């Protein structure tokens, strides 16, 4: 999609007024406004890429005027940046560094931090010196896809000069940091001298195989120059011709829900064998763009070329994992062969990565320690591009960058040859400590990398449980009969949580929902089977229809959910043998617990299974059957590394126990509502959040299965033992 000039004088004035009310001066307000315009366009900037700056002044403690560079800080994304995202650095000390012949990365970072006006501000961009050495008030830097299609060419300098004439400075590829800042400043000075002699005004700078700079006296001028320079690149690309060379792929490939869990399982086993965490999430892109590259016979050649801009390597690695073409739907033999090819493909990828590391590390004196050898992008002909990540959000970021790579490559090939930086430069960027720092090294939350599905997710307990797992890093799928309510709970969980309508008493709907989860996340780890409802009435007078309805929801729906979950767990972790002897051997050796991704089934059983109440026989008997189901699954699935546990909860404000029912029951017993709800050994009301925390606690008990955890404040009659 072509870039558009989205500058609005009215919106710019509104930004000045908005930030002015916070004490932000007009130049920084406009810097923030135009930076966000750039960040909002994925054709220009993706996920923390690019940087922007402003040269202005601030007043010091003694009233002195201090020239500063306000430059994008580490950790900020241009799409959402606020004024603090452009920390102010004293400009003159930065410019004085230009006199040096060399400056280490560590010294550069220290110099920038030492000159921050606010010492608590984030680190300035690694390209802060480049911004400082340029004379312009506003400077913008993007990784425009269109520009990269020109700049990633064997004859990029000649091509860019043809497109831009003398309007831009051309800079050969140099590793970012002090050396690049020096090179850009020197070449800018030479170009400025020529421009002064010819009357041409410099508008920007093309960093070959890297990106595009624009600059100006105002935020509007710099922004509009960026848009115009990108538009000229797009205009040239429009003269090219894209020729699709189809590879043999099935006309109707197997569904993503059948393939992605198999890939996720193979990736997990490869990660575990390498000492890395085994759970990863997947994001499939089967767009026309993704298929244009995945289904082309030149894919193997293209995949070896490298990333569109070196900055992307920390997200995607230099090359994607190439997998065999998707099998045709319904072809079980082809599906089995495709599955069998996954682990050899991952092993070959890891070996190639290790060889790449050893080659390049030898060239830098063997100083580096290898990163993991797992891919971050997989390509499945017939299906598309797959981003891999530690969370659904990270997998989506990787998939976005993979699509940008595809877009840049196809555009570059339409006018010539896609030729990004070479292997040595890619390695230097991938193993550059300042670039790796962008990813952050904070500890992962306890359920990071886990996909959790909650049924009855719009109810009080279900919603609380979904949010409790989300708060601990999990990615959530929320199922409920009320699809809109499920979607609302999913939104409250953040990330890429999925909300789906599903009638759990219909096994076909359950299977469809689980397939949607598999396609969205790549697999599944934990199921909280929570949905339920109570039918009242004495057993002797209870209509068969009510008893059957109770069993449909309180027993059979849980069976449908468990069957669908186990089918998905099996795709991720196929058992080597279905024989009882093999399962017993696995259990005896502990192989099921240590060598597999496994999975968890957690059930909301209720105290009625242990302590039935009069008039609730339909509910109690169906819940008692559910408890037996829990124990049966624990017995049968331990060898597969699947844990099965349950919660025994009572007297929770929810759809089963409404506020009206609480008022009625407490009045009938001559109690206050607080006394009624606290009618337990602890004398305290048990909340939905307490049940949610119990589910989370059970999920964290790695050596527990077949357990029933009571959450009722203390009820002797419902105690398990």
Structural class: alpha/beta
DSSP, total strands: 18
Radius of gyration: 30 Å
Largest pleated sheet = 7 strands, mixed
Biggest β-sheet: strands ordered side by side in the sheet: 3-2-1-4-7-6-5
Q: How much strand?
A: 5-15%
Poorly predicted runs: 578-594
State the separation between the terminal residues, measured CA to CA: 65 Å
Q: Estimate the global geometry from the Cα principal axes.
A: globular
Helix fraction by DSSP (H/I, runs of at least 4) = 40-55%
Structure annotation, total helices: 27
**What's the pLDDT, averaged over the residues?**
93
Description of the molecule:
This protein is an alpha/beta fold and about 725 residues long. The protein contains 27 helices and 18 strands. Helix 19 (about 485-495) links the parallel strand 13 and strand 14 (about 500). It is globular and about 105 Å long. The N and C termini lie far apart (about 65 Å).
Describe the secondary structure blueprint for this structure.
Blueprint: H1 9-20, H2 26-39, E1 51-59, E2 65-71, E3 88-90, H3 91-96, H4 105-114, H5 128-133, E4 138-142, H6 145-151, H7 156-164, E5 168-171, H8 178-198, E6 204-207, E7 211-216, H9 219-237, H10 256-273, E8 281-285, H11 288-294, H12 299-303, H13 313-316, E9 321-322, H14 332-363, E10 377-380, E11 384-389, H15 392-415, H16 423-430, H17 433-436, E12 451-454, H18 460-471, E13 475-480, H19 483-493, E14 498-501, H20 507-521, E15 526-529, H21 544-572, H22 580-589, H23 591-594, E16 599-604, H24 617-637, E17 642-649, H25 659-668, H26 673-677, H27 688-699, E18 708-711
Helix pairs in contact: 1-2, 6-9, 6-15, 10-14, 10-20, 10-21, 11-15, 18-19, 18-27, 20-21, 21-24
